[in-house]
Amino acid sequence: MKSLTEENLEDCLLNKVDLRRQWISQMVEEMQKVVHHLTTEISRQDIRFQAIPYSDTYNENIKVLAPTQFLVTVPVKGLAGYREAQQQRWRYYTLRGARLPCPLRDPERLQQWLEVEQFTKSLWQWHEADVTIEGDIVPAKVLQVFRKLVENAIETCPLSGKVSMLMDSTVVRVAVETSSGQVEAELTPSVEIPTAWSKKAQWPSCLKRWPAPERVQCIKSFGFSLLACSNYHWQLSFLRAEQVLLEQLDEDGGCRRKCFQALRQMKEDVWCPGKRPVLTSHHLQTVLFWTCEKYPDPKDWRVFSKAFLRLVRKLHKCVSQHFLKHYFVRKGNLLQYASPAKLDAVAQKLASFLKDPRISLP
């Protein structure tokens, strides 16, 4: 066990970070090949879904949530010229086409409806009944079509038994065998909207020094996405904008990225290990963004140990309160559906660490 105030703390944690980077890079490379094969076959079967090309560098469609948990966003084709819905209307349909006596509930803060007419250009296939009801593109129906395509692609592609479907009633999830072991990937159809910024994302707040105004405009220019991961409502996603924000963290010579990497390492090894953890890298990334906004001065990010502890305290507060605001859609709670018992267990570990900041990594 090493005290957080010892000089070699930073080296100790970041050595583990380097090892993790090498390990994850290898798994991502293998995952990319599998995803490319699957999506190429899916796109061949159904023109509405894009093939994800193999990339020697960063692949924006593959997000590492945890060492054995990946999110793969599969862009759709044939929907262009997005515009916000002009008027609100009630929906009375079910997924099977029955009529409800009362309207469906409104989307939550991180969700929205999606109508075919919100696009100025659309393939005729997006008007078909296999994905729409009363003019709405319904995520559950899109997922139903997509799930069948994934099943067919697994049987068709030369993947030598590397990929298998996992039973899940709400999302499309597969198990992939890599040289480092089995990993899980959630494959999610994604409507990319690069030409607009969601009206639900009232960001940034007034009088904030971080990020700089010119940086804000750059980030907003990347738009947002809508993910098919529920029955009736599309989930707002800002993966591209978040990645740009991450890439430009330390232009002032600070240690924000190092602190984030060390926080992630402790989370994965000590505070919240295992498959499908209650906290993912996305939660930690959001904690980092909020802390950067609260402490915009470069001097606050010069001493690693102090900055790292600041992040841990913020994480502990969010986990203890079961509340972590989405960075862009600030009324959304990223921990809304997380297990309270699991959050409390993580909060207890974080509290113990803060009382006696020592590290003991495997």
From TrEMBL:
It comes from the Eukaryota. Coiled coil: none annotated. Pfam families: Mab-21 (PF03281), Mab-21_C (PF20266). Residues 255-351 form the Mab-21-like HhH/H2TH-like domain. Residues 58-248 form the Mab-21-like nucleotidyltransferase domain. InterPro entries: Mab-21-like_nuc_Trfase, Mab-21_HhH/H2TH-like, MAB21L/cGLR. Belongs to the mab-21 family. This is Protein mab-21-like 3 isoform X2.
